[in-house]
Hints:
This protein is mainly alpha-helical. Helices cover about 55% and strands about 5% of the residues.
Amino acid sequence: MIGILPEELTVGGEEYPIRTDYRNVLDVFEAFQNPDLSDVEKWEVAIYMMFECFSCYDDAFEAAEAGFLVEGAENGFPIDEAIKQISWFISAGQPEKQVLEQPTYNWTQDEQIIFSAVNKVAGRETRELEYLHWWTFLGYFNEVGEGTFSFIVGIRNKLNKGKKLEKHEKEFLSHNKELVLMKKPLTKEEQEQEDAYKSLLDEVLG
């Protein structure tokens, strides 16, 4: 029905309540950016985070392993269908697009500037709200106009395509490399090595 925010997803012919707060979706994004998780593990996390019938990760893991078992489900719980339904919900019902270009933003790295932009559209601090439906949050995000976030995304887009930067963009980049340049997610081992290197460097320079 037009104007209704979905609170359930249909899997195996059954309606399952889902966790619709935007924070749950952002947690799913964070899991998918975790290089320590395999693709299967990432979807297990997504299923656990989104469907209320799973109280812990192990429940989702067992369902993924079995492929269909969920207590009380007459027609089973097909994991492939659950994945499609999650994708549909996260994209707000829009057809999935094949992503060929390099990403121009990261929900984890860009958290502060994204929320600043979203809050401007929403006219309030969205992080202070106890609940906000993902589709409502995504609507705010899609309406973000000119500002720091869009300016940085514009620079990244030019860098990805090898386009020449304007003088003011070059100046901004030279003074804000940590803010503009996309960071590659590190595995736990790589992060430990980087932390050890920084600690050693601090000792040498200290």
